[in-house]
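As noted in the main text, all predictions were made from sequence alone. Below is one such record, for YceI family protein.
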Amino acid sequence: MKNKNSKIAMLIVLALSFMSYTTLTEKSVKVDESSVTWKGYKVGGEHSGTIDLKSGSLSFDGETLTGGSFVIDMTTINTTDLKGDYKGKLDGHLKSDDFFGVEEYPTATLDIISATKKDGKYNIKANITIKGITEAISFPMTVNDDTATASLKIDRTKHNITYKSPSLLETLKDKAIYDDFDLDVILKF
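Prediction:
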């Protein structure tokens, strides 16, 4: 009986040790500081600006990135290449239902589904939700020490943002706004 209790106690100690080790290697870190810049393109030009991250975290197993989750504050869309009335008009238009409809959809989300490391960079597969529509995307990400950087290309039409899309309005080619826009992201944690 004593031998049986010793074996059970040893199994419990081993199980707890394994659980503690697993818990120590898996961690989630909060994003402390971020920079998210956007660039949209139109026939004959482009506009750029910033948008704020409301919250975010990255998940690691040891030093290896395994996931992450982010909430983007769509109400903070800010044009940085214009001033005065033009800036105010574009900011307002981007927040309107023609584009991001921030009154009904004040946030967008991005959830990392997988992160595969190759040659020092990660290939990220994620789900991005804009205007309540979720789309699978993939993009490269680099993680160095306490900083992660990524460049994403988003097709706005996949989120029902079709205002002056050249793929839908063949007659407006000279006033078209291209479907893809870029996001450049720097995350510090």
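The two ends are 52 Å apart (CA to CA). The first strand starts at residue 26 and ends at 30. These features were considered when defining construct boundaries for the mutagenesis experiments described in Section 2.9.
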